Amino acid sequence: MEKKLVCFFLAIFFLTLARSSQGRPITSNYSTFNLVSDGVQALQQPNLLHLNRLFSSDTCTETYGFLPCTTTVLGNVFLILVYSYFMFLGAKLLSDGSEILLEILGPGIIGGLFLPVLSSLPDATIILASGLSGSTATAQSQVSVGMGLLAGSTVMLLTILWSTCLVVGKCDLENSVAVDQKDTKIFSLTGSGVSTDIWTSYAARIMTISLVPFIIVQIPEVFQATSHSRLAIMISLIVSICLLLAYSLYQIFQPWIQKRRFAYAKHKHVISGILRNLKMLTQGKLFKEDGKPNTDVIERLFRAIDQNSDGKLSAAELRALVVGIQFEEMDLDIEGAVAQVMEDFDKSHDSQVDVDEFVTGISRWLNRARQFARSGQVQDDLSIRLLNNFQQQTKKEQDLFGDQNDEVVETIENAKWHAYKAVFMLLLGTIIAAVTADPLVDAVENFSTATSIPSFFVSFVILPFASSSEVVSTLIFASKKKSRMASLMYSEIYGSVTMSNILSLAVFLGLVYFRDLTWDFSSEVLVIIIVCIVMGLVASFRTTFPLWISLVAYALYPLSLLLVYILNYVVGWS
Predict the structure, then answer these.
(1) First-to-last C-alpha distance (Å) of the chain
(2) Of 443, 468, 464, 465, nearest to 455 (Cα)?
(3) Where does the UniProt annotation place the signal sequence (predicted)?
(4) In a 10 Å sphere around its CB, with 0-12 CB exposed, 13-18 middle and 19+ buried, how is residue 308 labelled?
């Protein structure tokens, strides 16, 4: 961190030295030179170099009155690179500080509400800078930089970064599941890939839902009712804020939700094991010919388990039943499993299970197995297959929820000092992002003017890499080549896109609404919707991604740029 701060202050020093200066102009307008003949030879025009686009003598306005500015292509390229580095440094400080604070304080409100907002702060500051200052006409011209960042961040994360993580983190696929740290098939398009848990799929679905504000704001354009554009913008702004609050609450309670869902999946696996064990003990049919549970056989099972023949099953007798079951690759909490079975069966709350409660409970389990298993036929010769299928499904579901026992919580030494350090990093990152945003937008706008390239395309390609600190961390996760790391990296990508779709969009909509700007971004919004829906659907309904999917994701990036160009400059949407 100290090295970064030294580089930061040195760069500031050299930038202040590199203020605008004047020199002999290089121009194609010969009339500006007062040339005088020597009386011997005819007047000769000087052989001047035509570099109007690379060098220019036009004046420019210095940001904050002292930061350097230029109207030349090369000069603006240099400024964009420098300011982009500053913005990336700010984003990295915010990311690192957030991680330290999260380790100290845990998820809760800090991790669920405060830190996700901070992660989107660099994008928000650039969007604000693109339309907050200057006249309405200036804001209308520069706000396309903000839209370029908004669209570019989403597309870059879901195409270039998503695909690169797949290529870097790929492992061999066996039985449609990636084998951790085994990569022997090189670049097999179907034989290698990554696997994630079910929570990553949930994150992708939430990302898809976050597109609702984009759809709302485009309704007047679809029905050619542009007179209602401001109303649509206001409604979309309100919906974005509501989604931000809802997503923050979800982030706050997500650890609790994960533990509850994992416990439920584990309990279903216990149920499947008990049913299979009971099937082995019984000599009759568990199901009747009409598909209903066979209560006579279940009652005989009860009598077989009731060791003291008192007509009730105690916790000790249920424990003997659970202990006798072999669960492969499952760290079973015996006492917890017995307590859960007792809770399922004991409706009289007397800490014992009578025959009626046992028959009712087992019948309910069998009906659940019949509904859950793939086979729809319930016959005697298929009952054991049905129960085996049920166990396989529950084991697969448990695996999808991930291993909750591999999360090692380390005690941070000198937590108070680390907390001060995290707060300092957050403050410094916020200041750097806020100060850098305005000159970065100006440099992009000046570069666009000098090259005649629309500012949207410049910001679409360049700015996402400057404001996205996720690039480094996700690639580090990918290099571990583990399913858990793959789940973390893709969850981080989907979470970043979700925050962009609600928080960054809310900032952008606020600018457009309160500054009374014109909404003219149909093609840009369409690209965001297409990319999010395609990648969201892919990730929502599958947890294993073969390598060939990366080719599709990579192709979406240039196709997005091409689509915006065609819609704006060929079809004439803009």
Answers:
(1) 44
(2) 443
(3) 1-23
(4) exposed
Distance CA 495, CA 207 (A): 7
DSSP letter string, 266-290: HHHHHHHHHHHHHHHH-SS-SB-TT
Q: Number of H helices and number of E strands within the chain?
A: 21, 6
Residue 407, token pair as written in the block: 């999360």
* Unique residue bearing structure tokens 């999360």: 407
Q: For the residues 226-232, what does the mean pLDDT come to?
A: 88
Distance of alpha carbon 550 from alpha carbon 162, whole angstroms: 8
Strand blocks (E) in 220-323 = 312-313
Q: Each residue of 112-136: pLDDT tens digit? A: 566 667 778 888 888 888 888 778 8
Query: What radius of gyration do the chain's Cα atoms show?
Result: 32
CB 181 within 8 A of CB 561: no
Q: What count of other Cβ atoms lies within 10 Å of the Cβ of residue 64?
A: 8
**CA-CA distance, 124 to 216, in Å (whole number)?**
21
The three-state secondary structure class of 178 is strand
Three-state secondary structure call for residue 574: coil
Length of the chain in residues, anyone?
574
Q: What is the distance between the alpha carbons of residues 89 and 472, in angstroms, rounded to a whole number? A: 12
Burial, 519: exposed, middle or buried (Cβ in 10 Å; 0-12, 13-18, 19+)?
buried
Joined tokens for residue 308:
């003291």
Higher pLDDT, 450 or 268: 450
Give the residue among 494, 407, 482 at the shortest CA–CA distance from 205: 494
List the one residue out of 470, 316, 460, 287 whose CA is nearest residue 379: 287
Q: 265, 115, 120: which is closest to 197 by C-alpha?
A: 265
User: What's the rounded Cα separation, in Å, for the pair 405 and 256?
Assistant: 14
User: CA angle, 142 as apex, 137 and 148 as ends, to 5°?
Assistant: 145
DSSP 323-356: HT---TT----HHHHHHHHHHHH-SS-SS-EEHH
Under DSSP, the state recorded for 67 is S
3-class DSSP state for residue 174?
strand
As given in the structure block, the two tokens for residue 156 are 């870059």
Reported pTM = 0.69
**Enclosing H/E stretch for 544:** strand 544-546
Residue 318: which residues within 8 A CB-CB, separation 6 or more? Answer: 305, 338, 341, 342, 353
Separation CA 530–CA 536 (nearest Å): 10
**Which residue type, as a one-letter code, is found at position 262?**
F
φ and ψ of 242, to 5 deg: -65, -40
Q: Render pLDDT for 487-523 as a digit per residue (tens, 0 to 9).
A: 888 888 898 899 889 999 999 999 999 998 988 899 9
Going from the C-alpha of 574 to that of each of 231, 313, 523, the distances in angstroms are 20, 75, 8
